[in-house]
Amino acid sequence: MAKKDDDTAETRLARLILALRSQGVSDPAVLSAIETTPRESFTPDLFKERAFEDSALPIACGQTISQPFIVGLMTQALKVDKRDRVLEIGTGSGYQTTILSKLSRLVYTVERYRTLMREAEARFKTLGLTNVITRFGDGGEGWPEQAPFDRIMVTAAASDEPKALLGQLKPNGILVAPIGKGPVQSLRRYTGDGKGGFEIEALTDVRFVPLLDGVAKEL
Ligand code: SAH
User: Is the CB of residue 123 less than 8 Å from the CB of residue 98?
Assistant: First the structure.
């Protein structure tokens, strides 16, 4: 087997895409969005070498950029359409936001750390994304002025059913979120039945940082 150090960025990316496919991320549009998003631009310098490993990595403010497989799985589960307006809670590095922006019409994204928000905004600018709207605030409250949304993705773990967010979903919309209080949570998909109710599916176990109340006081 070739030594990892000899691998080019292309080889690493190709290997990552193969790994995602083998784990069940099969939607070509989702795979293509991942393939065309330079993950190394979203990680701190210290971790750039590991950007194409299928693992979560630390970012500023004690947060994490999600594992590519989980990003693929969640994006696929959200069944995003090109015409959709999507709300994302937990901008973090902006990696998941960028992938959503390639698959939808507009992405509204909320982050409770100013530093992360500013860094993510700079990346969106560099990448030339024109359909991402950012907000510094408590994502637990959603974005009432822009509701209802076709799709909602929560990338931090809610301790309970995210009622305020479900209330901002269109009747046939889909929300994907990790739910649970402990270190391991259940990734759930809520699909609106058009009559105010939801079909709820548990997709897999995941490990996310918690969805915290209010905005961060520190930068
Ligand atoms: N999607 C991100 C992963 C982010 S980790 C990426 O691709 O990099 C989860 C993020 O949710 C963290 O940045 C954290 O600060 C944020 N977060 C936690 N609680 C929040 C809240 N109530 N409102 C907004 N963002 C929140």
Answer: yes
Q: Which domain holds residue 111?
A: 9-206
Instruction: List, by residue number, the catalytic residues.
Output: 66
Could you give the C-alpha distances from 150 to 46, 86, 99, 205, in angstroms and in order?
A: 37, 6, 16, 25
The C-alpha atoms of residue 53 and residue 72 are separated, in whole angstroms, by 14
Question: Is residue 32 in some structural domain?
Answer: yes
- Residue in 55, 71, 88, 89 to alter for ligand 1 test, most ligand atoms within 8 A of Cβ: 89
Q: What is the CATH number of the domain that holds 150?
A: 3.40.50.150
Query: Could you give the number of structural domains in the chain?
Result: 1
Does any domain span residue 218? no
Does residue 211 lie in a domain region?
A: no
Name which residue sits closest to atom 18 of ligand 1, judged by CA.
Answer: 211
From CA 179, how far away is CA 63, in angstroms rounded? 18
- Chain segment 190-216, per-residue pLDDT in tens: 999 999 999 999 999 999 999 999 999
Residue 23 reports pLDDT greater than 90: yes
Task: Output the CA 143–ligand 1 centroid distance in Å.
Answer: 15
- The answer to the question of residue 148 being in a domain is yes
